[in-house]
Amino acid sequence: MVILPPAKPPRIINFLKPYVLKMHFTNKFVSAQVIHSPTATVASSASSQEKALRPSMDSTRDVAAAAKIGKILGERLLLKGIPAVAVHLKREQKYHGKVKAVIDSVREAGVKLL
């Protein structure tokens, strides 16, 4: 008689936080994307490098640009039917400045943060 090992339960983190917001800042641009973690695909993204957004911004790298990117990303998420995202901050990122601008404007657009 062969005794099989118990079946592993599915990873609960995949169900609790399927969409993760990640931000990237360079000296020239601001970009943010939401990743669907179970499939490791980009669900939605926004960047100050987009040609449609550049004329409407004074600068592509300051806090105002970060706030605009967050607002656009929030609107795109709601259009795709994604009501909530989790925020992933790198070790050196603090909730201040550009990071705060992106997160607050995503929240103001109507997306819940987990």
Strand and helix map with partners:
Layout: H1 13-16, E1 19-25, E2 30-36, E3 41-47, H2 63-80, E4 84-87, H3 98-108, E5 112-113
Parallel strand pairs: 1-4, 4-5
Antiparallel strand pairs: 1-2, 2-3
Helix pairs in contact: 2-3
Describe what you observe in this structure.
This protein is α/β, with parallel strands linked by helices. The protein has helices at 13-16, 63-80, 98-108; strands at 19-25, 30-36, 41-47, 84-87, 112-113. The chain has one domain (15-113): Nucleotidyltransferase, domain 5 (2-Layer Sandwich), CATH 3.30.420.100. A hairpin with a 4-residue loop joins strand 2 (30-36) and strand 3. Helix 2 (63-80) packs parallel to helix 3. The termini are far apart.
Averaging pLDDT over every residue, what do you get?
Answer: 88
End-to-end separation: 47 Å
Report the principal-axis shape: elongated
Low-pLDDT ranges: none
- Class by SSE composition: alpha/beta
Largest sheet: 5 strands, mixed
Helix/strand order, N-terminal first: HEEEHEHE
Count of runs of 4 or more consecutive helical residues? 3
Rg, nearest Å: 17 Å
The CATH architecture term is 2-Layer Sandwich
Strand content: 15-25%
Total domain units: 1
Per the CATH scheme, the topology name is Nucleotidyltransferase, domain 5
Number of strands: 5
What is the CATH level 1 assignment?
Answer: Alpha Beta
Name the helicity range.
Answer: 25-40%
